[in-house]
Specification:
alpha+beta, four-stranded antiparallel beta sheet, three-stranded antiparallel beta sheet, about 50% helix, about 10% strand
Length: about 325
């Protein structure tokens, strides 16, 4: 082979190596950023193939993390030419498995989106970045400077003809860092997948406030029943209630609660499923839910005919103890 041939071969080999390296680094990074997304994709495949009953619950997440780390490391090794012989063999071994598997998936199409690059194919990185940090999605719920409360950063910046980033810093300084906000970045598809997962439980991390609370503080469980049971039929009523009661009680070691049975504490909620509706919003955060007919706490009626009674029967719960 003449000198020109060697040069062309060298260029072709290195260009191919760099392209593969960038592809693997990118694929690994998008999986590292959202390992749960890759986990849910594994769940989709296992369910499509009918393997869900045989797969341990921890395995999809482990596979997601291992795949992300492997792809990222292979990409870095290829890019910098580290241990070329070993890296080449690992790459060939990986592709000898993935190529026929990908061909089969393309022909059988058990899942519409392969998930190779997470959500990066259907949602660009810039769109994802904007979705996470967009000023319209930053809603100030509480601020020691009252004029900024109940407004988005985009709204404030437009009104004052200011740069949103600079204005956000000004608000932190002016309020002495006494500002609470809600950031809208959750993907409804991811939430639905998490809700449907048999290992997930329902709770709320909302907390009370003299001024503004997140609407989930008042409406979290009812929203699950209304949206994912009544509207989307993602869960049965029994599954949803178990995720809110028996399952977390068992997980937390509250042996005398969580299910209706003889000898258990009588924590009972009576609902009218047809009327059930969560009314809390970001503006009206303390609006109570419709359809809650009666609530008993430790056997004492605390809510009757949708009215809260002056009954204080609650107790601090400790694992394994009353």
């Amino acid at each position: 082979m003449n000198r020109l041939g060697y040069k062309l071969r060298w260029v072709a080999v290195n260009v191919s190596r760099l392209l593969l390296a960038v592809t693997f680094v990118f694929s690994g990074l998008v999986k590292v950023v959202d390992p749960r997304g890759t986990q849910y994709k594994f769940d989709d495949y296992f369910q499509a193939f009918g393997w869900s009953e045989w797969i341990p619950g921890f395995l999809p997440l482990w596979l997601a993390v291992l795949l992300a780390v492997f792809e990222f490391c292979i990409g870095i090794y290829l890019f910098f030419g580290i241990r070329r012989r070993t890296t080449s063999w690992l790459f060939l071994l990986f592709m000898s498995v993935m190529t026929p598997l990908t061909l089969y998936l393309a022909l059988a199409n058990p899942v519409s989106d392969c998930g190779c690059f997470g959500d990066a194919v259907s949602l660009t990185n810039w769109e994802s970045f904007y979705q996470l940090t967009g000023w319209e999605g930053m809603y100030i719920t509480e601020c020691s400077v009252d004029k900024y409360a109940d407004r988005t950063m985009a709204e404030i910046a437009r009104e004052e003809n200011a740069d949103p980033f600079e204005k956000a810093l000004d608000i932190l300084l002016e309020s002495r860092n006494n500002t609470m906000m809600i950031v809208f970045f959750m993907d409804p598809v991811d939430v639905s997948r998490a809700i449907a997962n048999p290992n997930s439980m329902v709770c709320t991390d909302g907390f009370p406030s003299k001024k503004k609370s997140h609407p989930r503080y008042y409406g979290s469980c009812v929203r699950v029943l209304e949206k994912y049971v009544k509207q989307e039929h993602l869960l049965s009523l029994q599954q949803a209630i178990y995720k809110m009661s028996g399952m977390p009680a068992a997980k937390l070691g509250l042996t005398d609660r969580g299910i209706l049975a003889e000898g258990k504490k009588a924590d009972i909620l009576v609902i009218d499923l047809e009327k059930l509706h969560d009314n809390a919003t970001y503006k009206e955060d303390k609006a109570v839910c419709d359809g809650i007919e009666c609530v008993t706490v430790n056997g004492q009626i605390a809510v009757e005919d949708a009215k809260v009674l002056p009954v204080f029967a609650g107790r601090v719960l400790r694992k394994g103890r009353e």
